[in-house]
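We now fix the convention by which a protein and its fold are recorded. Think of the row as the fold of the chain written in a discrete alphabet. Here is one such record, which you should read through line by line.
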Amino acid sequence: MVLTASLPALVFIWTGIAAKLVVPPCDKHMFDSDVDHCVSDFNRSMETGDFQDGCPWPAAKGIYNKLKLCVDEGAKASWCRGQGFLVDKAFLEVHYKYFWQCGQVQDPPFFTLIMLIAPVIITTLLMPIVCVKLTTWSTEMPSTLGL
């Protein structure tokens, strides 16, 4: 069993295949030029749309996916795939420019708030009256019949 597992390793070492599988270092300049190309395409696509007013997320999802595929291909071509911080840095710049409003929580309009809260308040205020009426209804019934 041990011989079977170690046999492929010995074959790779003896034939020199193991030495040929060395991964080249990350070519940062190539990665940066690829990312600049991808981001410039993304910027052009975002500028043609009307995304300056608010959070563009649902409408820009397709454009964002194209940017992600382009950056991933650039990372693979320049051997920077394992350098996650380079990819993260590129996406952080895009997020700071276009998606900075997406995380902000906004209150609903005043009318919507009133329509959501008013039934709960009215029910809370009327519930004691309804409960008193229901509990005293059965005790008042015989007296109203004259018995």
In short: The mean pLDDT is 79. The radius of gyration is 34 Å. Residues 58 and 143 are 67 Å apart (CA to CA).
